[in-house]
Design a protein that fits this description.
Layout (H helix, E strand, L loop, with lengths): L1 H25 L10 E3 L2 H7 L18 E3 L23 H10 L18 E11 L5 E13 L3 E14 L2 E16 L6 E12 L6 E15 L3 E15 L7 E15 L2 E11 L7 E12 L6 E12 L8 E12 L1
Length: 334
Amino acid sequence: MKFALHFRWTVVVALLLTKSTKILADQPDLLPPHGSKVEVSQSYLLATYPSTPYPPMVLPASIPRATVAAPEFIPISEPTEVVPVPLENRADNGMFLQQAQEHPPAWYESPTRWLDTIPWDAGLELGINGSTGNNEAVSIRTGGYFHRESEFAKININAYYNKTSAGGIETQSNGQLNITNDWLFHEDSLWTLFTTSTLFYDEFQAFDIQVNMDGGIGYRLIDGDHLALTTRMGAGSSREVGGPNDEWIAEAIFSVVSEIEVSTRQSIYATLDYFPELQRFDEFRLVTDLGWEIELEQPANLSLKISVTDRYDSTLVDTNPQLLNYSVLLLWKI
């Protein structure tokens, strides 16, 4: 009996295949999309072959069907947590870096990139002191700097201006602009070539402006991550424009520059420049600049700066040869 049922079912399938093949030969558009899963309903089979005891069949996609159903999407597994990979560990790190280089920040997003593709380190500083009572006194100091360091060169541009008044009378008005450029012989060289130029203005001096231009050779005694010490020596000339001795005077230059990183938020710098006249070494200028910067946590890019500048000029006549300024400033790094 069981053998008879199996034989009968085989005959049914053979008849279906024969009939379907003939229909496909005449009407090929009846084929469903490749890969679709289709069913032949049980009612259709029972109506055609009432004695068939088997459930509906799932047939290959090559056979025409009474009904066609698209397959349901069944995920293989539940989604897992995505763990970000650090950029430096990604295989496409170079691609991301290349995209960053090809699409630099807009001009208004990074003012320190206006001058060149290599960013400049820049900052503005401001300090105000005042008192009122029997006398009113106001003291203002403002300034700024630009700094750029590349593989073979380092340039520093800094300026400041001091203004003081007491009882409505101006007692101080002076300012200075300094530009220094260092060139390295090669990346690991301790020797440098340098040029420096300074413009100094003082309303209470006999000259309109004092200018000097010097150059020479330097040597980096210490060039570490937290401590740098450089010495310079050379020659040049200076002139007091609009003064009683309005002519170029040959001079030498001896300098010491130091930078100390006390911590991640504190740094100290010191510069000492000595300018003796070549014909008379007893006539000289001595310029000292000291500073201590403390980076604040909030707001960002703001630091507290304590500054001391001292200028001594033995060539000045009928005025105090020493000019000392000390101040506490807020420094905004841009």
